[in-house]
TrEMBL record:
Its main location: cytoplasm. The active site is a redox-active disulfide bond. It comes from Azospira oryzae (strain ATCC BAA-33 / DSM 13638 / PS). The active site is at residue 453. GO terms for cellular component: cytoplasm. Belongs to the class-I pyridine nucleotide-disulfide oxidoreductase family. The keyword Flavoprotein applies. NAD(+) binds at residues 189-196, 212, 280. This is Dihydrolipoyl dehydrogenase. Binds 1 FAD per subunit. Disulfide bonds join 51-56.
Length: 474
């Protein structure tokens, strides 16, 4: 007799493991199957998905190490700290990153045990409907579940004609495993991954060139933020080429040679020791057997869902990168909690208008809500408050007064419509904006709240005051 569960989650990434834990907390018998190739020392598939294994967590570990290295080499002297020129031991850096990943992925196993979630090792593929609900093949066995949550995530998009070997040509996985600093590094794609990986290796000594097909830098961000970021990244030493058209890429044992046409129509050639391809991600729907059971996919290969992550099939849900919307771990987690609570008859909800975006460069970039260009396109009357970190005492004391906070509020109701930050600790500062917007707050609300002094959060406070043209320190 096959194993039977109330809920089967296919995929153990952020969306999957959170869905499994929350469903178990609500009293369901739950199993989660995972087959990712990032085997742990025991040879078992690792939980955590792309985010924990080859994405968010390891990249932040490398960003932190490279930031410290750059601080020691370039910023300590201004603080009166005298040290000899720092040296980077790349294998040790990679080893520390791996240890962080191992600790967190092992932690999920502990959470599964604590919440009585059954982990099934193997690839999940639909077989059909059975007496207890849905039949899913996991590895060599078939299990049954009344409800199924698909959380299979995404994988790196590769370019035709450029084979990724994870030695010379890398995607996000290979970029996190380099054992030495390349003298010259080429990156295709100026998105989040390209900028973060470019920042890591540029700080450690690489000459980094980023090639981007789009003519607009960080098109999803507010234009003020994008313009400031491009200026600062260029000043740091990142060579960012926008509006390029790729030509032939030749790969040898020694490196790569990329032919491209620049934005002015001139033929160029870029030689580098290694190439990182970071041109987006595609949903993991291969092998689900979606066609056999009639599970609808859109033209991008994503599973079609409604606003509550229900698919076209009864009892089948989908969350995270495998559905439409931003491919963000925290978005997947929120969808996961919503689905588990809806299955339990509760009022699960996910507000897609208040999902924050973060880029962990230096300075960090974070935003939530509408950009100024979106408000203009929609014909929404708004007012703006913008405060530079140069006017913030804590930022000056830290030696990092770059960037600004920009707040956009409705001209009629004063309700906050968007907040955009480029500067120190932007990833943490954006949380205040998210909370305020989630409660339908106005710029006046933030302006009337006492903020501790001296803190970086005072820049958010001043931006709120600036929406009413009454900043106190700028």
């Amino acid at each position: 007799m096959s194993k039977q569960f109330d809920v089967l989650v296919i995929g153990g990434g952020p969306g999957g493991y959170v869905a499994a834990i929350r469903a178990a907390q609500l009293g369901f018998s739950v199993a989660c199957c995972e087959s990712n190739p990032y085997a742990d020392p025991k040879g078992e598939p690792r939980l955590g998905g792309t985010c924990l294994n080859v994405g968010c967590i390891p990249s932040k570990a490398l960003l932190h190490t490279s930031h410290l290295f750059e601080e020691a080499g370039h910023a300590f002297a201004a603080q009166g700290i005298q040290v000899s020129a720092p040296k980077i031991d790349v294998p040790t850096m990679i080893g520390r990153k791996t240890a962080v990943v191992t600790q967190l992925t092992s932690g999920i196993k502990g959470l599964f045990k604590k919440n009585k979630v059954t982990q099934l090792n193997g690839h999940g593929s639909f077989v059909g409907q059975g007496g207890a609900g849905w039949q899913v093949k996991v590895g060599d066995e078939v299990v049954e579940a009344k409800q199924v949550i698909v959380a299979t995530g995404s994988k790196a998009r590769h370019l035709p004609g450029i084979a990724v070997d994870q030695k010379i040509v890398l995607d996000n996985e290979g970029a996190l495993e380099q054992q030495s600093v390349p003298k010259k590094l080429a990156i295709i794609g100026a998105g989040v991954i390209g900028l973060e990986m470019g920042s890591v290796w540029r700080r450690l000594g690489s000459e980094v060139t980023i090639l981007e097909a789009s003519p607009d830098f960080l098109a999803a961000a507010d234009q003020d933020v994008a313009k400031e970021a491009l200026k600062l990244f260029t000043k740091q030493g990142l060579n960012i080429q926008m509006g390029v058209k790729l030509g032939e890429t030749k790969v040898s044992k020694k490196g790569v040679s990329i032919a491209y046409t620049d934005k002015d129509g001139k033929e160029q050639k870029l030689d580098a020791e290694r190439l990182i391809v970071s041109v987006g991600r595609v949903p993991n729907t291969d092998g689900l057997n979606a066609e056999k059971i009639g599970l609808k996919l859109n033209e991008r290969g994503q599973i079609e869902v409604d606003g509550h992550c229900r698919t076209n099939l009864p009892g089948v849900w989908a969350v995270g990168d495998v559905v439409s919307g931003p491919m963000l771990a925290h978005k997947a987690m929120e969808e996961a909690v919503m689905v588990a609570e809806l299955m339990a008859g509760q009022a699960g909800h996910c507000n897609f208008d208040t999902i924050p975006w973060v880029i962990y460069t230096s300075p960090e970039i974070a935003w939530v809500g509408k950009t100024e260009q979106q408000l203009k396109a929609d014909g929404v009357a708004y007012k703006a408050g913008k405060i530079p970190f140069l006017a913030n005492g804590r930022a000056l004391g830290m030696g990092d007064p770059t960037g600004f906070v920009k707040m956009l509020a409705c001209a009629k109701t004063d309700r906050i419509l968007g907040v955009h930050i480029i500067g120190p600790n932007a990833s943490e500062l954006i949380a205040e904006a998210v909370v305020t917007m989630e409660f339908g707050g106005a710029s006046e609300d933030l302006a009337r709240i006492c903020h501790a002094h001296p803190t970086l959060s005072e820049a958010v406070h001043e931006a709120a005051l600036a929406c009413d043209k009454r900043p106190l320190h700028f």
